[in-house]
């Protein structure tokens, strides 16, 4: 790796600080280690707390973020998330992170995080990134696109809920780390949600919405849509 992993981690942690309580509610105790949903007696908005007397150091630990993700898939990227589902000690802390690996010309397709802003740090390679604003108040105006080419050491922020993407424009692999302002930021990959839902959205609805012929929608709905975490 071209940049020291410890240096990356230090930058990422520092970058997360302003977002620590931007989305999730503040904790009411030192920690609230999450109980696995499969053993929870009830479902709540978030995660049930583990008995503090049974909490161990491993509840705050996640190994292996130095290992590359497998990018042998249709989009050529792999997200390795570290949120409350992988690291239960993140429960109520309002932060998470992810490693994103890109094959040459791989893409993290247009998507949103409904519960978090994202701050991206490029470690290797060159990424073309961007986000699109929400619908403007003036119906005569278009949604605005903000884009930037990022190089190792560059940082870019994606505001909460806005559609954004990252694309490796180089012929070598790329690597980035993302900090997010929620223990469980969620992700909605636009194409997957629109054309790959189960059950599928009525194609007449999509044909009208996209102003295309129904056979175009039929073709898109018949494709295999690869899910990105």
Automatic annotation (TrEMBL):
Cysteines paired by S-S bonds: 32-49
Of the GO CC terms on this record, one is: apoplast
Compartment annotation: Secreted, Extracellular space, Apoplast
PROSITE patterns associated with the record:
GERMIN
Q: What's a single GO MF annotation on this record? A: manganese ion binding
List the InterPro entries.
Cupin_1 (IPR006045), Germin (IPR001929), Germin_Mn-BS (IPR019780), RmlC-like_jellyroll (IPR014710), RmlC_Cupin_sf (IPR011051)
**Gene3D superfamilies assigned to the protein according to its UniProt record, in alphabetical order:** Jelly Rolls (2.60.120.10)
Q: Which Pfam families match?
A: Cupin_1
Record-listed Mn(2+) binding positions: 111, 113, 118, 164
**Which segments constitute the Cupin type-1 domain?**
63-218
Q: Is the keyword DNA repair assigned to this protein? A: no
Question: Domain of life of the organism in this record?
Answer: Eukaryota
Q: Supply the PANTHER family for this chain.
A: GERMIN-LIKE PROTEIN SUBFAMILY 3 MEMBER 3
Q: What is this protein called?
A: Germin-like protein
Naturally occurring in which organism (per UniProt): Sesamum angolense
């Amino acid at each position: 790796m071209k940049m020291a992993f410890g240096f990356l981690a230090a930058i990422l942690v520092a970058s997360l600080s302003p977002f620590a309580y931007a989305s999730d509610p503040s904790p009411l105790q030192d920690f609230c280690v999450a109980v696995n949903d499969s053993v929870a007696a009830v479902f709540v908005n978030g995660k049930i707390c583990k008995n503090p007397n049974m909490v161990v150091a491993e509840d705050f630990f996640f190994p292996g973020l130095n290992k590359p993700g497998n990018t042998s898939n249709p989009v050529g990227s792999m997200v390795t998330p570290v949120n409350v589902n992988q690291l239960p000690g993140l429960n109520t802390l309002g932060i998470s992170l992810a490693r994103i690996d890109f094959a040459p010309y791989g893409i993290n397709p247009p998507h949103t995080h409904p519960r978090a802003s994202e701050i991206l740090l490029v470690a290797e390679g060159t990424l073309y990134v961007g986000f699109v604003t929400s619908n403007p108040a003036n119906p005569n105006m278009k949604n605005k696109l903000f884009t930037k080419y990022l190089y190792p050491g560059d940082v870019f922020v994606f505001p909460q809920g806005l559609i954004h993407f990252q694309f490796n424009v180089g012929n070598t692999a790329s690597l980035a780390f993302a900090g997010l302002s929620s223990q469980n930021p969620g992700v909605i990959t636009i194409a997957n949600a629109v054309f790959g839902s189960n059950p599928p959205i009525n194609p007449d609805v999509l044909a009208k919405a996209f102003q295309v012929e129904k056979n175009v929608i039929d073709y898109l709905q018949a494709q295999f849509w690869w899910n990105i975490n």
